[in-house]
Predict the structure.
Amino acid sequence: MALNSIAAMRAYGASMDAAGTQKNTRGLQAKKSQETEKSFAETIADSIKNVNELQNEKAQATEAFVAGENTSIHDLMISLQKASIAVSMTSTVRNKVLEAYKELSQISF
């Protein structure tokens, strides 16, 4: 009986040590993520910049195709769809942010 409780205590101690190690690891990961995290405004600006680049690529691909340059219709359609999805996602995020802002503005403090 005593042997089982000693084994149980050792197992408990080992699990606590492992948990402590996980907490330390999580703390280090949190520090790293805080150092590399961007602000919300930077993230939005980067996203809009990427959408703009996709739109420019779409325009270039369309112009090249219309001009008769040696471009693939498949590449053209892919660039059109990428740009379309990017604009759609940007619009959806914008709508969600505005919806959240309206909800927050209606809350009385």
Remarks:
- The chain has a mean pLDDT of 80.
- Residues 2-36 form the longest helix (35 residues).
- Residues 6 and 33 are 40 Å apart (CA to CA).
